[in-house]
Design brief:
Layout: E1 2-6, E2 12-18, H1 21-24, H2 30-43, H3 103-119, E3 123-126, H4 136-146, E4 153-157, H5 162-168, E5 174-178, H6 184-189, E6 192-196, H7 197-207
């Protein structure tokens, strides 16, 4: 699949770039996309939730009422879970939600997500660029020039560029990511993927890298 290369003024440079078919042209696998997305969201969870059990509450252990004949549920001391202010049965405890996922599965998921974007013609390729200073106005002008001003844009850069990041961070619906940290969740969440030529090289290197 060939795409035109544009500059930040939205002008066609007259050059074309061929997307790697093994990354952008495969048959997407929905199940591995689900697994990779599930792992990403699980990793975002802090897992610090906690509620107190009976042994962790302060209070008398005196039995409040007789065992039978009261007409209600049996209860013991003031810390009983059936009383207001009592403990909680089987409450949440701190835990780690992360789970293992093979590298090949994660790689296939990213290729599947990128292939979906390629099929939907939701990828725009631009020349590598930088800003002399952090100016949101310049970034907004670039987005308008590229005619991709719809919501949920993901700009992918080959390396850290502080001025570009600072220029885009206050714009709603636009995010900037590094090619090396690109993940399935971010790709699928974007309506349009804006890739620089340098970021395409990084993606090719990472996703076609043979395991030792």
């Amino acid at each position: 699949m060939e795409l035109n290369v544009y500059n930040i003024k939205g002008e066609d440079t007259g050059r074309k770039i061929t997307l790697n078919e093994s990354i952008f042209g495969i048959e997407p696998n929905d199940h591995v996309i689900y697994l990779d997305t599930k792992q990403y969201l699980a990793n975002q969870r802090q897992g610090t939730h906690k509620s107190k059990e009976r042994s962790e509450l302060s209070g008398s252990t005196r039995k409040l009422g007789k065992q039978k004949g009261g007409g209600g549920a049996r209860r013991g001391d003031i810390k009983s879970p059936i009383l207001v202010g009592g403990a909680r049965c089987f409450g949440p405890k701190p835990r780690d939600y992360n789970f293992k996922l093979n590298k090949k599965v994660k790689s296939l998921a990213r290729c599947s997500a990128l292939s979906y974007k390629a099929k939907d013609n939701a990828i725009v390729v631009i020349e590598d660029f930088t800003f002399e200073s952090a100016k949101t106005k310049e970034f907004v002008a670039m987005v308008k020039n590229l005619k991709v001003s719809d919501r949920n844009l993901l700009f992918v850069l080959p390396e850290v560029n502080k001025n570009v990041y600072l220029s885009a961070r206050n714009i709603e619906g636009i995010s900037v990511s590094l090619a090396a940290t690109l993940n399935t969740y971010k790709v699928l969440g974007a309506n349009t993927l804006v890739l620089t030529e340098g970021s395409l090289s990084v993606i090719d290197t990472i996703l076609t890298k043979k395991e030792a």
